[in-house]
Structure formats: structure tokens, C-alpha cells
Design goal:
The structure is a single chain. The protein has a single domain, classed as 2-enoyl-CoA Hydratase, Chain A, domain 1 (Alpha-Beta Complex), CATH 3.90.226.10. The chain is globular, with a radius of gyration of 16 Å. It is of the alpha/beta class. Helix 2 crosses helix 3. A 5-stranded mixed sheet has the order 1-2-3-5-7, covered by helices on one side. A 3-stranded parallel sheet has the order 4-6-8. It contains 3 helices and 8 strands. Strand 1 and strand 2 form a beta hairpin.
Length: 162
């Protein structure tokens, strides 16, 4: 079973974080698969929009700290020769030409919320929990959310003058 599935129909790519038994907790492998899916969908002219969601009842419960093996640790140092990026995905969703819509079907915590924040449109479940949990521990939020969230809030509440 893969940690991420992609299906394309009628010009829409449905990208699903697929670890429902772990509430789609983010792993390094999931990040690599999401990077590839974003690139492949963005390069495919038949894909007109990308919808990102989670399998089961959660969007993404955050980073999976249950196993710190190289295969799963999303915060490992980049491979030698790789450039550092603060984004959980490379490219980030907002860097794609193809619009990305987050269908946040349940809890989005930490890196899970960050991934959703980086999309062009977010449709959020009313009964889910959303959190940048790092601030409770006195740590800067991960993967650009310390920049993305305030910019989204400022853009949303910017006054419009006629």
C-alpha cells in the first residue's frame, strides 16, 4: 500500500494522503511521493486542477514521530547535493501552474495544516481540529507556516477601498 494515491478523471487529479491507520501522519516517503505527484500533475496539460485530501477521517495529523528511520523521518537533513527547502513539499503547491485545492476532510495539525495552507483554495471540515501545535512548545512553526498563515490572514482581512 502506498502512502499517497493519485487518480485523474475529467481533468482533475485527486491526490490522497493514504495512511488512514495513522491518521495520514506525514512521513518522508509521503513527502517524496507528494513532490512527484505535484510535478507530474503540473506537467500534464490534461490536468486542469489538483485536489488534495486525506484518506479516512483525517486530512493529516502532523509529522509521524513514531519511527525515526530514514524512510519515514520528514525532518531529516537533505540528501547530499540537495538544496535545503523549508517547504514540506518541493515544489510547494503555490509554486505550481495548476491550481491546487485542499479538501480538508478532518484534522489538519502541524505539517498537515501547513500543506493545506500552501494550496490555492482550502475547503475545511467544520468539525475538524486545526492547529499549529509547535507554538505550544515555544518552537517556530514548521515548513513555512510561520510565514504562510499570517500572509493568508492579512490578505483575507485587507480593507478594500473604492
Amino acid at each position: 500500500m502506498t502512502h499517497l494515491t493519485v487518480s485523474v478523471a475529467d481533468g482533475v487529479a485527486l491526490v490522497t494522503l493514504n495512511r488512514p491507520e495513522r491518521r495520514n501522519a506525514y512521513t518522508g516517503q509521503m513527502g517524496e511521493l507528494l513532490n512527484r505527484a505535484y510535478r507530474d500533475c503540473d506537467n500534464d496539460d490534461a490536468v486542469r486542477a489538483i485536489v488534495l485530501t486525506g484518506a479516512g477521517d483525517a486530512f493529516c495529523a502532523g509529522a509521524d514521530f513514531g519511527d525515526f528511520s530514514k524512510a519515514t523521518n520528514p525532518f531529516d537533513a537533505p540528501a547530499e547535493g540537495s538544496a535545503f527547502t523549508a517547504a514540506p513539499t518541493d515544489p510547494a503547491a503555490f509554486e505550481l501552474r495548476t491550481p491546487v485545492i485542499a479538501a480538508v476532510n478532518g484534522h489538519a495539525i502541524g505539517i498537515g495544516l501547513t500543506i493545506a495552507l500552501q494550496t490555492d483554495i482550502r475547503i475545511m471540515a467544520v468539525d475538524a481540529k486545526y492547529a499549529v501545535a509547535q507554538v505550544r512548545r515555544g518552537v517556530i512553526p514548521d515548513c513555512m507556516s510561520h510565514w504562510t498563515l499570517p500572509h493568508l490572514a492579512a490578505a483575507r482581512w485587507r480593507p478594500i477601498f473604492f
